[in-house]
Amino acid sequence: MSTAATPECQSRPDLRALFLGFSAVGLSGFGGVLPFARRMLVEQRKWMTADEFNTQLGLCQFLPGPNVINLAVVVGKRYRGVAGAIIAPVGLLAGPLAIVLLLALLYDRYGSLPIAQSMLRGIAAVGCGLLFAMAWRMGSALKGKAVFLPFTALTVAAIAWLRWPLPIVMVAGLLLSGGVAWWQLGRK
Amino acid sequence: MSVAGELFLEFALLSFVAFGGATALLPEMHRVVVDNHHWLDDTTFTHLYAIAQAAPGPNVLVVTLIGWEVAGLAGALAATLAMCLPMSILIYLLIDRWESFSGKRWQQAVSLGVAPLAVGLVFSGATLIATSASLGWAAWLLLAATVVANLRTKLHPLWFIAVGAVLGLLGLV
To answer: Hey, are the CB atoms on B114 and A167 less than 8 Å from each other?
Structure first.
């Protein structure tokens, strides 16, 4: 518990509030809900300060897996222990999961119609563009591009072109790229 | 083993290397689900990605959709849980110690080292969807326009999805 937190940031949500708060986050975001989680936690409900949010997010982003689910577990645990750590991610996922399954039912029934096929083709092209843009933004945010962008290129070659299995590529890539980072950090 | 059980094991293993979230796993999920097991074909995989883009919620839901198409409701729940549960448990156990290892040299090295790989994974995912969708020249044009517009403006992504849907319906892409 941080003692630096200002008093107005110390409201303690109960399970119901955790569920509803994270439900709202899950339903409001398209293509990534992390910014909405920050807005809800720090600005709207003031469950944590901006500094606390950044610290907790650190581990969520450090570990693999969906960052925002990890974040929900952390926030849930902080306020309501095990029950909170279960309820918060369930709240985050329940609404969107229901919507997506409804869409899946519609897809199973009508997906083979030419009109659905052409609509999905248009969305896929756009969705792909959004993905390339996301990769571009992530790439621009890299520190030490001259050193680390080659590892991006190697990953693309191994995964998209050679079609090597991801676990092997990631372990080898992390040893190489993390090794270079380790060496660089030691020189400073 | 049931297909849902197999899906759970495959995706739970993947969750340990999901740096960059579920989006970064698209190429590998394609490998497992389309190439290795032939549970889905290329077109369906692309469609599921498109549906996930058009729906609200965390990016991880594309995994739910894949699970659904492979093995129904059991598959949807198995795939989603497999993707979320292992790291959720780990983070539950680790968060109280985070401050004691955050900032250490090995922790910084892993963070710095994993970032370029995550970029590569997302880029590979985009390439893979683009090639599986067998896009025509007009669709490539739309794709390129989306990249530029998304990087240059602050338009909500839903606008792009809507434009894509309409152009698709009109048979233009």
So the answer is: no
- Minimal Cα–Cα distance from A15 to chain B, Å? 17
Per the rule left: phi > 0, alpha: psi between -120 and 50, beta: everything else, B171 is left
* Contacts for A3 with CB less than 8 Å, ≥ 6 apart: none
Please, what is the Cα angle at B169 between B164 and B173, to 5 degrees? 60
Q: How does DSSP classify residue A30? A: S
State how far residue B82 is from chain A, nearest Cα, in angstroms: 10
DSSP string computed for A49-108: -HHHHHHHHHHHHHSSS-HHHHHHHHHHHHHHHHHHHHHHHHHHHHHHHHHHHHHHHHHH
A126-178: per-residue pLDDT in tens?
999 999 999 999 999 998 999 999 999 999 999 999 999 999 999 999 999 99
Contact B54 A123 (CB under 8 A): yes
Cβ distance A65 to B160 less than 8 Å, yes or no, reads no
Query: For residue B78, with 0-12 CB atoms within 10 Å meaning exposed, 13-18 middle and 19 or more buried, which class applies?
Result: buried
- B10 in helix, strand or coil? helix
